[in-house]
Recover the amino acids of this structure.
DNA sequence: CACCATGTTCCTTG
DNA sequence: CCAAGGAACATGGT
């Protein structure tokens, strides 16, 4: 579920649910998930702590906590590839891959992650290393041009560099390049000023559209499979029963480009799939 | 069985 | 030292 838009939607969903709640007890079922913190540190620090606020930075969730002695501290979450966070009734059995559980009284805050690539840690150093927020003011065309200058790396690969832009992942990188009409294989440093400005725009549009359309997973696990906006590749439930096409190229290998009908191509860059239209993307 | 998967980090290579 | 490429991590779906 995890690129910037998914994390943003999750944060908006979770923030009012956790605000002012107190952690009675924290359980670490998968110690790897809290690294570089230790299981003991997490358990000790979270006992009696209260949720003060919740923000997103790149693909990270930043929980602002107030400890039992009044001290503020950050709790940093990352969903990895398969992480999910939600509240569930305390009587519910814990899911198979529950990595960290916080008992809130009546409900549990559950961080489950089948592949265990995610994080829930007290260490916030990763945040400082991130590039600007693509939807924020610091992400200007000038900044972007500067960040790309001199790089021989393919632009698609460059877009995944969290030190350049925070939050773009493998799906939206392909999507933004399609919208900009730019080939994913061009060296980042060879883009013209106009293309860079255009790509900056399409990155912002792509991410904002995804946020506006809602979540890619069911966010509410506490009821009977309440699906407040479940969709993923290709389609999204709208207000009615209709499904709307969501992605233009990602995971559409061999399917017709929605613009020109040319077959969408899949290539591998940096050991990851890239999808693009060879005709629309020069 | 083979291959693929929304992410990040670490190792190797040049 | 730096940039770039690719494997590793761990589990599940097709």
């Amino acid at each position: 579920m995890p690129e910037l838009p998914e994390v943003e939607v999750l944060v908006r969903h979770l923030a009012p649910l956790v605000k002012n709640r107190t952690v009675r007890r924290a359980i670490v079922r998968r110690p790897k998930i809290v690294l570089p913190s230790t299981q003991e540190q997490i358990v000790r620090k979270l006992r009696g702590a209260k949720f003060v606020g919740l923000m997103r930075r790149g693909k990270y969730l930043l929980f602002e906590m107030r400890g039992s002695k009044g001290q503020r501290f950050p709790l940093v979450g990352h969903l990895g590839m398969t992480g999910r966070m939600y509240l569930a009734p305390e009587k519910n059995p814990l899911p198979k891959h529950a990595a960290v559980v916080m008992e809130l009284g009546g409900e549990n805050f559950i961080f489950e992650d089948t592949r265990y690539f995610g994080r829930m840690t007290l260490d916030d150093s990763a945040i400082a290393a991130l590039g600007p927020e693509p939807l924020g003011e610091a992400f200007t065309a000038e900044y972007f041009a500067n960040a790309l200058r001199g790089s021989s790396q393919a632009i698609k690969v460059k877009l995944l560099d969290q030190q350049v832009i925070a939050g773009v992942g493998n799906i939206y990188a392909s999507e933004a390049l399609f919208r900009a009409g730019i080939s994913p294989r061009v060296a980042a440093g060879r883009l013209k000023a106009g293309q860079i400005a255009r790509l900056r725009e399409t990155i912002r549009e792509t991410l904002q559209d995804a946020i506006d359309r809602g979540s890619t997973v069911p966010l509410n696990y506490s009821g009977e499979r309440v699906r407040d906006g479940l969709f993923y590749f290709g389609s999204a439930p709208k207000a009615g029963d209709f499904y709307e096409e969501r992605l233009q190229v990602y995971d559409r290998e061999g399917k017709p480009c929605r613009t020109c009908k040319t077959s969408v191509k899949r290539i591998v860059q940096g050991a990851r799939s890239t999808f693009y239209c060879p005709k629309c993307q020069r």
DSSP finds seven helices and twelve strands in chain A. Residues 32, 81-82, 97, 114-117, 151-153, 157, 269-271 of chain A lie near DNA strand C (CB under 10 Å from a C1').
